[in-house]
Amino acid sequence: MDKLHTIYYFLDLAGTFAFAISGATAARHRGLDLFGICTIAYTVACGGGIIRDVCIGAIPPAGLTTWYYLAIALVAAIMTIGLYPIVQRLNRPVLLFDAAGLSLFAVTGAQKALSYGHNGEVAVLLGIMTAVGGGVLRDIVLNRVPVILEKEIYASAALIGALIVVLGNHLKWVSNDWIAIIALTICFTLRILALRYHWNLPSFSNGKASVDN
Amino acid sequence: MDKLHTIYYFLDLAGTFAFAISGATAARHRGLDLFGICTIAYTVACGGGIIRDVCIGAIPPAGLTTWYYLAIALVAAIMTIGLYPIVQRLNRPVLLFDAAGLSLFAVTGAQKALSYGHNGEVAVLLGIMTAVGGGVLRDIVLNRVPVILEKEIYASAALIGALIVVLGNHLKWVSNDWIAIIALTICFTLRILALRYHWNLPSFSNGKASVDN
Amino acid sequence: MDKLHTIYYFLDLAGTFAFAISGATAARHRGLDLFGICTIAYTVACGGGIIRDVCIGAIPPAGLTTWYYLAIALVAAIMTIGLYPIVQRLNRPVLLFDAAGLSLFAVTGAQKALSYGHNGEVAVLLGIMTAVGGGVLRDIVLNRVPVILEKEIYASAALIGALIVVLGNHLKWVSNDWIAIIALTICFTLRILALRYHWNLPSFSNGKASVDN
Fold it and tell me: Which Pfam families does the protein's record reference (chains A, B, C) (predicted)?
């Protein structure tokens, strides 16, 4: 199944690019300078994976050693600075790539934790962290409440993707490649449907409004 | 002294529950959704211990591998959502459990750092981190200045608890079990007295007010 | 070249002190209490190095084990509380020491990553992290957008210092000591010139202003 790894590789690049674009765009809106925009782009692209690698003992973290992650983040940052009208028009494919990145990072994050010999709970938690950690760091650095904790089916799609990997790995009904394909497809479909139909998880604040500054 | 370990175990569960309740309540007030409330509850319960374990090389962190920490955090989150009036009425026991958790996490955090062969400074710093790190992460994610850095005798009670463990371990006047009991008692008492009599550490801002948003 | 290591040692202490002063001053302005001021002073002084050490597998992190870093941070915190008029008058030397610390931490951070056998990308990224990570953590905890991402030639000076170390180490045109001296001098000069002439990196926000709270 070499074809699968080619697809993985493409999804990895596309997802990294979409994550970096989301970081660079948010940083630009916030008025950060050249260095700030590059930093946030890179943080969104690699932050979740770095936290995962530190927690599973994969030292040094892949996000720090792999040159093309950094290169993709810098290209996304420079595009967001120099070709902003184009980046804005790319909004729809970027959302698609972002959903692809979300699915891939959740699945490969859970797989990597399992491959280091850790248990299913670690794999699910760090699968989610790989997928959404970078976005959470972006929002923390930009001084706002992480959007994925407030609304949208985003982290919960990652949860389901990582959960399928762990359950599939435990039950061994089908090969690991098929488990990954199923997990990717379900996570991606869930995220796209949630975007299309504006699905949100319930929230429960009473009286006191959720004011983000 | 098997009785001590039973007490430890009970305090650990009660403290984890109280920490998770504090996270879930704050997340609910801030208008986070279901996933956000569960995440913040889990972060407060396990965040400090995860940072400690990463720093001492205890990979994977206990907070990620132990199923009942996650389970307790989810129960606390769901109670905060579904049984909010009851959780509000539990305010007083939760403060008590929270003080118990603070003491236990400071003591066991320092002990774990020592047991990994690190020096007294590491043990004191990571004892404090175990006890207050989750709460600091909660406030950072919820976009406010950590309350324990602004007022209250909270982190300083943890400091004293961790310090007693390290000094006791160094001087070896009594057994480690007795050191732990003394440290737990003093830290807990200090925290309860500070709550009861509204003790605060001094602050020194001049002119410019401390405005939290 | 024992003289070099004496200079290193002095710069390390002076830089740590300046970083701690910047943390303590910001914490005092924000109205934090005694514990908060000490914590932020220590965080700025040691935070970047601790993140570096966790990422390269240097466990436990030097910032947690070295007593004089903690001692310097506490002295800086207490000076900022008790001798605030003097600390304010020290503004100019503190800026100088801060630039020295920035240069030294970028250079030694990159060197340490290389000495642990990691590649040039890791060394550059973690050299920057060593130099600016503490300041970024300070701003995150104090609930504001990190100033180094918004303006000033600060992190970019660290980037150039770390880059020179990595390139020099790769090309081996001169000895490592000379590489370090060149990197230190260029990084320090760049930072001082940027301060003197108010150099900033460009930012690109359009319409929406960059409002920090």
Answer: Gly_transporter (PF03458)
